[in-house]
Amino acid sequence: MAPLAPPVAAIRVAVRRALAELTASGPVLVACSGGADSLALAATAAFVVPRSGRAAGLVTVDHGLQPGSAERAEAVADWARQSGLAPVEVVRVQVTGRPGGPEAAAREARYQALAEVAGRYAAAAVLTGHTRDDQAETVLLALARGAGPRGLAGMPAIRQLAGMPLLRPLLETGREQTRAVCAALGLTPWEDPHNTDPAYARSRVRADVLPALVEALGPAVVDNLARTARLVAADNAVLDGLAVEALTAARHPDGGLAAKALADLAPALRSRVLHTWAHELGAVPAALSHRHVAALDRLVTDWRGQGAAYLPGGLRVRRHRDRLLPADPTPATDDGEVDT
């Protein structure tokens, strides 16, 4: 028997670790585009997951954004079936017409499709092939847009997707390792032209910015950026816990939040409380930005009788005497500006 290639062994260990905490007995589904990262993950899952007592399946999403996308999706599905993965599904989604830029719209459509398929099969988890390089790119993009700690925390290794775990087992695995796995297993990954299209910010970071940093600062910069995300995420977890406690304490007996209790909080904690409350009111997390939270904060710290603060989705928050209260909604076309 030929010795197991080290990259193959390393990714198998990463997937086993990710599965170790699962308690549900449903299938584990891999989101696979056919690129090197998700293809290496799917091939690894086909080996590892059945040995944990679960079925391993695959979902490939056809965004319909490129000629031949339907044929490529079917080719991925055919490979998956031949590799013993089941269930296998191809899901076609509509990206155009969704809010946000093309990258955000495609991501929203993709995760919605994954959630629907996972729910239908009562999946134990969904796996995605995001790597350490993806994490480093995410941190750089967050820095470029002036994101706070939530953005700098990057992608979590585990998050909830419609009530079930979405796992990213490869966040400590380099992209060069997934390519090495594909080579070792005789797999031919698809090279998505969008990954090199300069029209997309992430593509520019991948092709130009990150390589320039590596050349200037050395190859460790990729791992250091990813490590930064892990460290910030750990700090966020503590602060989020404190924010939940502070939000509970700030609830006014007559509804809303007590302005005095909010004003007494440290600014960093108050902004998290207001951010959490905005989510609770129904603001879409992806659309809720710093300026929305800052508008809420001004109702607490710079109250001069101004009008309501507007949140995404037509939500409004007003101050009435000593309380912050949700106001009647406005049309969903609201741009999130503050009515002064």
- Strands, count: 10
SSE arrangement, N to C: HEHEHEHEHHEEHHHEHHHEEE
Report the total helices: 12
Share of residues in strands: 5-15%
Radius of gyration: 22 Å
Tell me the overall shape.
elongated
Q: What is the spatial order of strands in the main beta sheet? A: 3-2-1-4-6-5
Enumerate the spans where pLDDT stays under 50 for 5 or more consecutive residues.
331-340
Summed over residues and divided by their number, the pLDDT gives a mean of 91
The assigned structural class equals: alpha/beta
Helix content: 40-55%
Could you explain how this protein is built, in words?
The termini are far apart. The protein has 12 helices and 10 strands. The protein has 340 residues and is α/β, with parallel strands linked by helices. The longest helix is centred in the C-terminal third of the chain and has 31 residues. α2 links the parallel β1 and β2.
What secondary-structure arrangement, pairings included, does this model have?
Elements: H1 6-19, E1 28-31, H2 36-48, E2 56-62, H3 69-82, E3 88-92, H4 102-120, E4 125-127, H5 132-144, H6 149-152, E5 158-161, E6 164-167, H7 175-184, H8 201-217, H9 220-250, E7 257-258, H10 259-263, H11 267-281, H12 290-301, E8 309-311, E9 315-320, E10 323-327
Give the tags:
alpha/beta; 13% strand; elongated
Offer a concise description of the structure.
With 340 residues, the protein is of the alpha/beta class.
